[in-house]
Design brief:
245 residues; alpha/beta; Rossmann fold; ten-stranded mixed β-sheet; binds hypoxanthine
Length: 245
Amino acid sequence: MTVAIIGGTGLTTLRNLEITHREVVHTPFGEPSGPITHGVFHGREVMFVARHGYGHNIPPHRVNYRANIWALRHLGVERLIAVAAVGGVSDAMTPGRIAVPDQIIDYTWGRGHTYFEDDLTQVTHVDFTHPYSEDLREAMIVSARAANLDAVEQGTYGATQGPRLETAAEVRKLQRDGCDMLGMTGMPEAALARELEISYAACAVVANWAAGLRSDVISMDEIEANLKVGMDAVRLLLAELIPRL
Ligand code: HPA
């Protein structure tokens, strides 16, 4: 099966990826975040794309999610691993830790969020009861255990619009809704992968406690430091995971 990784904040390049070539793909939905990188990672061929661009200059609400997912599908990708930074809401979601969410609540708006809107012969719906592919989630959990990573093995990902962080009151509301973690890129990415029948799971990296939960304000230095720790864990996870797929 052809595998790809979408890297988020803190993972714009994949160390240990022996790059073979980069491929520019134009899609009916516009341009992806950058050329698709092809390479070999721990003995296995993978593709990689940096969600926010290789220069980390595309904010979450401007990412062309449709183009990214379409391009990967066009290149034959069947399994997709998304890496994304989140703010921690529930007690287990301590900064620096990684989590494998099993549910999503979508609070985003104004993003190109479906392939099924123009030139349809018939209105199309997809089942999204379980937004992440359980087999891929399971592989991620087994790999995290093998790498002694103490990952949080389930949780609800609240997809917020960004690019600003939330207010303390918004976080209290999102907590009441049942969100365990908050990120800005989980949707529509997961739904688009489902529409194109790509198996998709996410590895969330906790960058900070969500607003108002543990500190008065959130500093960007704190986010950066936690992401550094978290992304080292992600690299260990991927080193276990990729050869298993
Ligand atoms: N909220 C939303 N997205 C995020 C956060 C947060 O606190 N931290 C990193 N991505």
